[in-house]
Specification:
Two copies of one chain form a homodimer.
Chain A (H helix, E strand, L loop, with lengths): L1 E8 L3 H12 L1 H8 L1 E9 L5 E3 L6 H4 L15 E2 L3 H7 L4 E4 L11 H10 L3 E4 L2 H18 L3 E2 L11 H7 L5 E7 L2 H11 L4 H11 L7 H4 L2 H14 L10 E2 L7 H9 L2 E11 L5 E11 L12 E7 L3 E7 L4 H18 L1
Parallel strand pairs in A: 1-2, 1-5, 5-6, 6-7, 9-11
Antiparallel strand pairs in A: 2-3, 3-4, 8-10, 8-12, 10-11, 12-13
Helix pairs in contact in A: 1-13, 4-5, 5-6, 6-11, 8-9
Chain lengths: 343, 343
Amino acid sequence: MKTLKVAMLGFGNAGCAFAEMLNSKHEEIKKKYDCDVKVTAIVTGRRGSIIDPDGIDLDKVCPAGNQGSFPADTPGLGNVDAMTVVNEADYDVVCEMTPLNIFTGEPAISHIKGAFARGKHVITANKGPIAWAFDELSKLAEEKGCMFFYETVVMDGTPVFNLAEHTLKMCKVTEVSGILNSTTNYILEELAKGRDYDSIMESGRKLGFVEADPAMDIEGYDAAAKVTALLNVLMKAGITPDMVDRTGIENITAEDIQAAASRGKVIKLLCSGSLGEDGKVNAFVKPVEVDTKDMLASIDSTTSVVSITTDLMGKISVIEHAPEIEQTAYGIFGDLIRVVEGF
Amino acid sequence: MKTLKVAMLGFGNAGCAFAEMLNSKHEEIKKKYDCDVKVTAIVTGRRGSIIDPDGIDLDKVCPAGNQGSFPADTPGLGNVDAMTVVNEADYDVVCEMTPLNIFTGEPAISHIKGAFARGKHVITANKGPIAWAFDELSKLAEEKGCMFFYETVVMDGTPVFNLAEHTLKMCKVTEVSGILNSTTNYILEELAKGRDYDSIMESGRKLGFVEADPAMDIEGYDAAAKVTALLNVLMKAGITPDMVDRTGIENITAEDIQAAASRGKVIKLLCSGSLGEDGKVNAFVKPVEVDTKDMLASIDSTTSVVSITTDLMGKISVIEHAPEIEQTAYGIFGDLIRVVEGF
């Protein structure tokens, strides 16, 4: 039986849910793929690190979740930082789940480069590297013969990148669009109900739909990073998020929404990219009016959609319905299974 | 360079569009996969057959489309029947595209068995075999080491079967539902506009949405066969179409639709199957009321949708938007590329 050693950078909600899923499926993976998957390193921002080449006992560390401390008697508990783990720890695949810097993609990009430099495989749930450095990283992966998976970057484990790669053989993608930001989706819906902005933000924070600092969502930076990732992978666009023509929803008023409603329309923050006549990919994020009968109008709250148009298969859409944290975990888990298969 | 020989059973709209797509991509496939794909047999119901072990000249036979006769000087033109081609012709993969018998799956099932008996690979665009004999046929394929692909059976080339197999690793499907019949979708929409049944049927026939004998669609037989195929593959249901609890739209009146509208609902012919407590899959096809804001309400005319719920990835949906015949062709073409890869 082969053994696959996993290093986890980040152990927040998603990382913890992934570890739990992996733990619950450990025996099934062993049986199906003849592979013993061991987590040999976990690095967190504030709760220290765990390094254990024999495999960390997930039964022991998962129950703490992403709150509180790891049990004091956890073997290998310490304070090693992420870059040191990348460069020195014993692992075969690294799962990059550190907090996103949406304006640079760092330090995730450096983590991934460090792993490839050692010939290690990489799974990233962090959209920064795919938005800011996809071409460079995928070239490095190819040179080093490493696997590089990132399904979770857009719509959690919903197949988008894998769908295009494994099910749309020989199709050329000509257009990609979608609704990809839950926060703005929620705010626009609540504004349409006649609620005032401040109370929406307050209840949104309680529901977990609105971040402490919501500007990244409201001004369209998050959506721009996501559509950049989509276009870099699906259309080889070679762009960065600052090249996206970006308009957020910060200037959308309740009056705008009511005026749209009077025309049978709703306002959605749409992301889109298409092939221009010059062969370049033009991308935008902006609020658009869509017909209430349009599929896009039905994409409410945390539900999201990506539509892909290709030369051979026309237009198809993939919807992720009201995901929970398990769907993010599955994105990483599904990529891990892909690594197990190719290992 | 390897050579892959293809036998086509059926050369209607879809078969002809597939041949044209294959012809246009011939050089690209050669270059990408180092494989020369040749069509060595074409069998039609009324226009005879073409058998040419050196490869049929698709430039010559495609322009006739599915109308008229093949050029009289086409090498290998004759009157060989499908079963003889299956049993005796020189080919590596057969594409089953003969007319569907929705109550038996024949003669397509016999064609496929014949091909497997000779160790040949099979692509079917015909839903009959997947609805009526999936377990038997997939077992045969496995025993003989043959590839067996059928993406086109539901929603043309839109990834449904491939999606589940290649992108939802280790997920267990617990529920499948969808809107899969364009004819009934069209009729319900037109009834909602206040049109009378006879005029809808007349214009539907002109648009190609309504068959000469529409009973198979209207009474839900087509939808039942499709949901059976979905459930047999995705949930290993082991059922046949006659086990689906089937209600068509033949008793839906304009009054029913107006009453639904007054409640903010529209009527759609929904297909569904889910795992019962007894471990068996229960399937139905029936008209249901859905909220106008529901994604299902947006699935109009020839657009269709399949939703898949799994234990690990929650619920996702895949939509095929307003397909043309090229999307059916791509379904077969995509399966063929899969055969090229595995050959």
